[in-house]
Write a structure and sequence with these properties.
Radius of gyration: 17 Å
Number of helices: 6
Structural class: mainly alpha
Number of strands: 0
Mean pLDDT: 89
Low-confidence stretches: none
Distance between the termini: 25 Å
Amino acid sequence: LRASAGAFLPAALLAVLQAAAVFVALRYGLHLTFADPGGLALLLVLTGLTFTAINQSLVAAFGLAGRFLAMLVGVAQLAAAGGVYPAATTPAAIQALHPLLPMSHVVAAARSLIAGGMSNVFGAVAVLLMWLLGAWLVTLLAGHLRHVARTNAPA
């Protein structure tokens, strides 16, 4: 637990700083006004923390291959999120991923928080929290299994 938290905290701090940078870039770089700036800031922070936890869990579970898997998950999320192209215009495999991956929900919630309305926000937060919790559990399990393997290894 201590090792997992120790590895997560520096990356989590970076995720919070990145969320702040995105917020500032949207507000002052693109001159967007937000219907709910506080809600958007919190969504961006939760998103960054969730994706940090997902990355950490993949690396914890798969080692160096987890870094590659994290990149593939990121690419799949970009393709399935509906932020670049509407999900309905993408291939069937991408459409199937759309409701399962957290970025799809983040895009919908961010649109609501920027334009006004809360229709997608609570669902997105719930999805992010489920992914965050699941990623932490995978990280803890991978760390525990690695510890057990080292402890039981022949001397």
